[in-house]
Write a structure and sequence with these properties.
about 500 residues; OB fold (Dihydrolipoamide Acetyltransferase, E2P); about 45% helix
């Protein structure tokens, strides 16, 4: 451990009355350093009889006093990492800047007044008092007030990569592969010396002893970890086949500890794997980009072992239950079959007796059929006889004779009627003829009268003024015609 002067850690004003004055002398500080690696201080080079040995509690008390004197209340800004909230309501986290970090605690009374929810990667400004936790000897800041100041660099990188890779479709749920329910081999990509590998193997063996676990060692923290994880994933994917699964795992830690699983090369290597990949990185509250691209995300390495292995005990219980149900169903089926068989036996009769009965039934059916046919024939014969009698009564010959007699009678009546009508019409005609003869112009003409007709219009000349001298007229006596020329027209007085 570096042997720094005690005055490099705390200013002399904070150590007055706490350490010997010889340790505060700047000229002899390096020569009188403490050399106790257990507490990180170098003991003054003095004779054994003059040295003062501190008890741990005494030293912690003196350091607390120094901190209270030098740093009564202070404000500090940094990025939140490893944030967790206990069931009691106390908040434990670390604030960091570059390669420096400081553990912090915020008790429930102060945390209950927060107006926001602290998150991993958030830049905060907090106020508190420095203190040394005696249980672990850790320097920590007891925070009584916290204000958000923004987001950290790592968190900003995390969000940028998450959005970009999501836009490319690496986190698409539709492309995720199903985890085989009974994997043949599990390729475990993790550190060979970490606690995660022991927890995983112990849990997997307890659940399913038949599974083969192939450890593919890889660095899971540090600058070289991303490339080593990519290499291990390539080895596992090349060796894996159908019904195998790859598990990427490591224990919990800060965002810096888990950052290797946020590197783009690791995310794309998981995406390229041809078999399902399960991510079991960190604790339940830790999320990495490997969780998003993996086919299944487990909260912890132990949860990953549970996710990829079936529970043999549970399967045994289910199998025993199914066997009991199958046995019960089989017994019930056999009982029902026995009852059905017994009923069929009672219903089953001697085939010879059945044949005799069938013959009797056949004879009865034949007799009934013959009787029915005879009755039908008799009925049809009676029906035909009735039709014959009706046909004889309604014979066409008789109807024709009646029609002929009626026709002859009607003819006689027609001739007689016609003669009477002719006779009546002859009498009427003679009477009319006599009457016409009496008024006929020809009869008048026969008595010496004549008609004068104007030939142009064939009109009878009724008035002498209708013609002029020189006109032609036709005189029609009782017989023949006389054409004359008018010499003169005279009235009745001339």
């Amino acid at each position: 451990m570096p042997k720094d002067n005690i005055t490099d850690l705390f200013p002399p004003s904070a150590l007055e009355g706490v350490l010997p004055e010889s340790c505060l002398d700047s000229g002899t500080a390096h020569d009188q350093a403490y050399d106790n690696e257990d507490i990180g201080w170098e003991a003054p080079v003095q004779m054994p009889s003059d040295r003062h040995v501190y008890r741990v509690s005494e030293l912690i008390s003196k350091i607390r006093t120094c901190l209270d004197i030098e740093f009564a209340t202070l404000w500090i800004e940094g990025e939140i990492t490893s944030f967790s909230k206990a069931a009691s309501g106390h908040c434990y986290f670390t604030i960091r800047e570059d390669n420096s970090c400081l553990k912090c605690v915020m008790f429930r009374a102060s945390a209950s007044s927060l107006s926001f929810e602290p998150e991993e990667g958030m830049i905060i400004t907090c106020r508190g008092n420095l203190n040394v936790y005696a249980g672990r000897g850790d320097l920590q800041l007891v925070v009584d007030r916290m204000e958000p100041a923004g987001r950290g660099i790592l968190f900003a990188r995390f969000q940028e990569m998450q959005q970009r890779l999501e836009a490319e479709g690496l986190f698409d749920p539709d492309r995720k592969k199903q985890i085989p329910p009974f994997p043949r081999r599990i390729f475990l990509v993790t550190s060979a010396s970490g606690a995660a590998v022991r927890d995983f193997i112990r849990t997997a063996r307890n659940r399913w002893r038949g599974v083969e676990i192939v450890l593919v060692p890889a660095l899971v923290q540090g600058v070289e970890a991303p490339a080593d994880i990519v290499r291990a994933l390539g080895v596992a994917d090349a060796a894996a086949s159908y019904n195998d699964v790859i598990v990427v795992s490591r224990g919990g830690g800060s965002i810096e500890d888990l950052w290797a699983f946020n590197e783009e090369a690791v995310v794309r290597a998981i995406y390229r794997c041809s078999v399902p990949v399960v991510s079991g990185v960190g604790h339940e509250t830790d999320f990495t980009l490997a969780d998003y691209v993996a086919d299944f995300r487990a909260a912890t390495p132990t949860a990953a072992a549970v996710a990829v292995t079936p529970d043999a005990l549970e399967l045994g219980r289910v199998l025993r239950t199914l066997l009991r149900r199958a046995e019960h169903s089989l017994k019930l089926l056999l009982s029902l079959s026995a009852i059905t068989l017994q009923e069929l036996r009672h219903r089953l009769r001697d085939p010879g007796k059945l044949l005799v009965e069938q013959r009797q039934r056949l004879d009865d059916a034949v007799y009934k059929m013959e009787h029915a046919v005879s009755a039908m024939v008799s009925e049809h014969e009676a029906y035909v006889t009735r039709l014959f009698h009706r046909l004889r009564i309604a014979s066409p010959e008789r109807a024709v004779e009646r029609r002929k007699s009626r026709l002859h009678e009607m003819q006689m009546r027609l001739v007689s009627g016609m003669k009477q009508i002719v006779s009546d019409h002859k009498a009427d005609l003679g009477e009319i003829s006599a009457r016409l003869q009496a008024i006929s112009p020809l009869a008048v003409l026969s008595r010496g009268y004549s008609l004068v007709v104007i030939p142009e219009n064939q009109q009878i000349l009724r008035d002498a003024r209708e013609v002029q001298p020189g006109d032609t007229v036709v005189i029609k006596p009782h017989s023949g015609k006389v054409e004359c020329e008018v010499k003169a027209v005279m009235d009745d007085e001339s």
